[in-house]
């Protein structure tokens, strides 16, 4: 039985493109790749809205805390903003736990890689390693080393990560805190995620 496909029959899978497509990337023509790249550029305009939807979904995630993960994120960002953090750190504070929507165990790495193309190296690094710093406040009670942050001593962003964990993040579980709503941060979310993303 033949496994050869008529690539001209595949154009139905790409509305608006009339040429041959193929069934694998190795078969894609230059014209078709140009067509795809154009769609990827259009897709970038929707990243801000996707992040807003992801943040909203965190209101359903409580994990036993007195506040939802959305309220925790908003409270962390509110504290960062009121403490004079720059825009990238405010977004990092707002989005630092979005990885929990997929996995609690490795959520810092998930969130950090989602943010990396749009934020500063400092904001990326703080999100990537925030759990190591946060551990000081509770790891001993679950049988883990509370001083994992010491592994990062001397790093250029150490002080920012320490401030993030100690002043903004670990304090952001207070149901009575005067927290700014998501709508307050929405313009900044849309601005940051409308930037041209960086590679690497």
Layout: helices, strands, pairs:
Blueprint: H1 30-44, H2 47-57, H3 69-82, H4 87-95, H5 107-115, H6 121-134, H7 158-169, H8 182-192
Helix pairs in contact: 2-8, 3-4, 3-7, 4-6, 4-8, 5-6, 6-7
The helix/strand class is mainly alpha
Please give the oligomerization state of what you see: single chain
Low-confidence stretches: 1-12
Q: First CA to last CA: what distance?
A: 44 Å
Please give the count of helices: 8
Report the average pLDDT across residues: 91
Q: Can you tell me the CATH topology?
A: Hypothetical protein af1432
Strand coverage percent: under 5%
What's the SSE pattern? HHHHHHHH
Q: What is the CATH architecture descriptor?
A: Orthogonal Bundle
Give the C-alpha Rg.
Answer: 21 Å
Helix % is 40-55%
CATH homology-level superfamily: Hypothetical protein af1432
Query: How would you sum up the major sheet?
Result: none
What count of domains describes the coordinates? 1
Total beta strands: 0
CATH hierarchy class name: Mainly Alpha
What coarse outline follows from CA principal-axis ratios? elongated
